[in-house]
Amino acid sequence: MSASLPGNRELPESQYDLTTYWGRVRQTATLTDPSTLFAGKHGLEQAKKLVVAYKRGEIKDMTPELWKAKQVVDSTVHPDTGETVFLPFRMSCFVFSNLIVTAGMLTPGLKTTGTVLWQVANQSLNVAINSANANKSTPLSYSKIAQSYFLAVGASCSVAVGLNALVPRLKRVSPSTKLVLGRLVPFAAVASANIVNVFLMRGEEIRTGIDVYPVLSDADKAQLAKEGKAESDVPSLGKSRKAATLAVGETAASRVFNSTPIMVVPPLILMRLQRTEWLRKNPRYTLPINLGLILGMSYVVLPFALAAFPQRQRISADSLEEEFRGRGGDGGMVVFNRGI
Questions:
Q1: Would you list the domain boundaries of the chain?
Q2: Most buried among 2, 136, 195, 219, using CB within 10 Å?
Q3: What is residue 318's three-state secondary structure?
Q4: Full-prediction pTM beyond 0.70?
């Protein structure tokens, strides 16, 4: 993000009010905007130059061009490391990266082998996205990543295969209800595995804590500017396990919020459409309709799900461990990167 670039003058955090849910939705929509993917290496470097020019005082005011540059930087660069996130794992590419995998999992009539393979593909992608966008103040070893991956795959496959075997055996359920339940099996598998995946992938954060920083007042920011320093130069107050637990829990919840409508609405609509005379006569349109439903729902839902909780989360220092009490910044508050 722009905070990781050099310069002692910080850009405004957003054009929108991030203390409100709708403000965060609008901000998240800019970060997940697929158009930022077309900036390329040259576009990113140009965007960085504009942001650095502002932070060094060479550009005095925020302009539409500068807001666009900040959007490109914030959607491409990791806020903790300052490194470019690999394109398929950026949140601006999330909808497209998940499209084929989600369509595969929601394919009607999958057998056990197909179910397992698509669940493995989904968890592989989830692990990569979780790893690329996690809070980086607590690095995760490759052995931990591998362990988390296999446990998440095991969880998702167990739920999917188990429910696929259970639903047909339900005796007091009508055939139409069984059909609905069968279409919702992928949702149950994905939702449960998403929670397991996030907590396993980011379990090290909970064990060792993540960096928390004091919230700076306007006077603090002015003093830093006089000293030729930026907000990113302010040292961490230490690592908090309570902040990490909150960060990981909120991320897991946002993933469930995101997957629920995507995994529930399209299969139910498709099931209804498959009963129509038109689609019965034109079954070749089933796949493109399924892809269209998933793509449309994914694009609409993602900003609303990610905006459920602020990415830079503020919390009272007194609600954390004893060592942080009384050490908060403006209003006794501290801030940390929740991750996405």
A1: 1-77, 87-337
A2: 2
A3: helix
A4: yes
